[in-house]
Write a structure and sequence with these properties.
Radius of gyration: 28 Å
Order of helices and strands: HHEE
Distance between the termini: 60 Å
Strand content: 5-15%
Number of helices: 2
Number of strands: 2
Shape: extended
Structural class: little secondary structure
Largest sheet: 2 strands, antiparallel
């Protein structure tokens, strides 16, 4: 299970009743498999039949490459906590502004609010 706050055994137990009612294509979709990466190809790969109500793609230039999930595993020794040692705070990347590159001013306001409530009871 990839979501840490979900109890995997409880979820699998709850889904047992539903397993007999799902179709084979749903069962195949509900599994871990290779990642699919689509890369542009200069070569026209021909017509691609699209599913259901979509029209076919006449000139297909997207080549599908499969990549194992293991390619994304990072060893704990390679993880860096905090800011990367080679990062710089003075670099400006267009489209990704930081507060260092934005013009702004900061003001502090303090308000004294009385949260006292008075109740009047009549007997």
């Amino acid at each position: 299970m990839l979501i840490p706050f979900i109890d995997e055994n409880r979820l699998i137990g709850a889904m047992k009743d539903c397993e007999s009612r799902i179709f084979e294509h749903e069962r195949l979709r509900n599994r871990h498999g290779p990642m699919q990466i689509y890369v542009y190809s200069e070569q026209d790969l021909g017509q691609l039949e699209a599913p259901a109500h979509f029209s076919p793609i006449v000139h297909n230039h997207a080549q599908c490459q499969e990549l194992s999930r293991d390619a994304f595993v990072v060893q704990p020794s390679k993880l860096i906590k905090g800011r990367h040692p080679k990062s710089t705070l003075d670099r400006y990347i267009p489209g990704f502004p930081s507060t260092r590159h934005l013009l702004f001013t900061v003001s502090h306001f303090y308000f004294l609010i009385d949260f006292s409530f008075y109740y009047r009871f009549t007997l």
